[in-house]
Amino acid sequence: MRKIQTQGVHHITFNGADRQSTIDFWEGVLGMPFIFEQPNLDAPQINHLYFDPGDGRLITVFTEESRKPGGRVVDQVGSMHHIAFTVSLASWRQALLRLKEADIANSGPVDRGFMHSIYFRDPCGQLIELACYKFDPPEGATHAEVLRLAHDLRIMRGAKNIEEEDLADAIEAITARRGLSLSADD
């Protein structure tokens, strides 16, 4: 069977509350510029807001003035659990303070072995994660390539999850594969 090959996420659309609380959260708390809006072309009574999450792609939110913040997303088969946004280590380190200033409850720091995370909810209850990798891939490699090799290394060690030593060893192996050194590695 031939595949339809994806090349990344185009956009993600949330159901939000009213227009202003949506802008206050996505731009005011998360710093995503509010870049345009238009009616939802499938349901013109619903507004469609567009935000830039920092990589030039789009996060969009359907809003309706009758909806107010405070609702909760119900987990059920087929529903989304959470969305994770990439942040720099500097931003991740400031996130707890800034969420506190915005009076937004959160998980506190969570160590995932290969990344740092903080979880909190948007005004309608959708779970949001701020994620920061603990490593930079070698030039020309991707995070996915490093993680794929780190997975194999952690399996060989019998470890439960990827740890920093797996990341370091994967980065070393990827760099060595390039064969740029004239020295023989004994």
UniProtKB/TrEMBL annotation:
Top-rank taxon, per record: Bacteria
Name of one Pfam family that matches: Glyoxalase
All residue ranges annotated as the VOC domain in the record: 8-133
PROSITE patterns: VOC (PS51819)
InterPro entries from the UniProt entry: Extradiol_RC_dioxygenase, Glyas_Bleomycin-R_OHBP_Dase, Glyas_Fos-R_dOase_dom, VOC_core
PANTHER family: RING-CLEAVING DIOXYGENASE MHQA-RELATED (PTHR36110:SF4), RING-CLEAVING DIOXYGENASE MHQE-RELATED (PTHR36110)
Name this protein carries in UniProt: VOC family protein
Organism: Paralimibaculum aggregatum
Taxonomic classification: Bacteria, Pseudomonadati, Pseudomonadota, Alphaproteobacteria, Rhodobacterales
